[in-house]
Specification:
The complex is a heterodimer of chains A (255) and B (199).
Chain A: H1 12-21, H2 26-36, H3 40-55, H4 69-80, H5 91-120, H6 126-136, E1 140-143, E2 145-146, E3 154-159, E4 166-171, E5 180-188, E6 193-199, E7 207-210, E8 222-231, E9 245-250
Antiparallel strand pairs in A: 1-3, 2-9, 3-4, 4-7, 5-6, 5-8, 8-9
Chain B: H1 9-17, H2 21-43, H3 46-63, H4 74-92, H5 112-116, H6 123-135, H7 138-150, H8 154-161, H9 165-184
Classes of the chains: A alpha+beta (255), B mainly alpha (199).
Amino acid sequence: MVMMSTPTEEPLEDLLPAYALGALDPAERAAVEARLAADPEARRLLAEYETVAAGLAFAVPARPVPAGLQDDLRRRLAARRGETAPRPASPRRATTLLRLISAAAALLIVAVGLIVALRTGGALPPAQVYATLEAEGDSLRFPLVAGEVSATVYGELIADRSGRRAVIAVSALPPLTADQIFQLWVRRRDGEVRSGGLFQPAPEGMTYVSVPLREDESLDVLLSVGVSLEPAGGSPYADRPTGPRVFAVPIDRDT
Amino acid sequence: MDVMDNLSDLDLLRRLQTGSEAALLALHERYAAAVYAVAYRVLHEQMLAEEVTQDTFLRLWEHGHTYDPERGAFLPWLLTITRRRAIDILRQHQRREPAQLETFSLDEHPYLWEQFGQSDEQGELRHTLFDALAGLPEDQREAIALAYFYGLSHSEIAGYLGVPLGTIKTRIRLGMHKLRAAWFGAELPSGNPVDDSDA
């Protein structure tokens, strides 16, 4: 029975290997599935090919696991339970320090920033937006997860309740050589990835980076924000980094 | 040592299905490297591969009950979910056609099967499969890899390689048949073409 032809006139048996690999065009796939429903021998043969296909995954080169993945999974699970996301393990002390520094600086920065803004009429620098959000008290906070470049990087993304203004405050960024630059990446839930610009670390203290949201965007449409270490001038691709991850900030607002 | 470390995959899955986050985290500890390696192999981009890794385990958290142990071992099932999810992401990014062709990288070490595929009861079979894969003609391995890692269809592979559609179908059919024969000990049918000139 397995040798009966599909509507494409090809023996069903000949199409099963490609079906198991997912290599059939939609019309072929639909034809095969129609035949499979009535052919237990073909289903048995397909199961064998699917076992082989699953085994091919083991022919992939092994890679080291990026740091922080399990902490990130714990936080995502907590977010799904509706709990406040736990902070990353070692950066707890660091985050507390971050907040102390931020709180101490907030009043001064807000005061100076508002004066500057009133005088210039322009957008506030990221440090001042951060301080403003910090002072608002009901802001959203998302801890960053260190990448492979440095395990000591710590900080957070802070945003207003609407998710329309967001700033990253990060400390302990690794020093750059003359031919390196940090590049911010924004990943939307619809799959789009775009560059958020290049930046260098502040000469001392915290580095503040604005998250470039479009007019019609809020954090709700973002899956994560991340920073990679790139050659001077940034990634040659507009939609993907080429260098290692410095840190990432998963956005779990609505999960 | 955590008590979870001594549990089998199946025991962990049973606990996971009762809502044990500890069981999910134990499976993550055990297999995140394998999942990440497969995701990275498809996407060639660290951040996306990490997202696919975490998404795979969150899907396991929500849909772990769909795993049927009678249909095969747990890890190949998990890696199949990973590969399909990674290909979905690849399609979303409209990077379906590889900028630079990469087939199975048989000159790289170590392989995932050396790390994860040798200790269970199917380890020897995977070793046999790997040997069979290494023994395939390069054009058959290439066609299988383009379907497997890039989600390309017959016709897309033919277009990408600039060879007739029938040639690609034959390469995939012959290659997969040899791999199946290696795994299951099936005999190659007599009269099966040994080259791909029937396009």
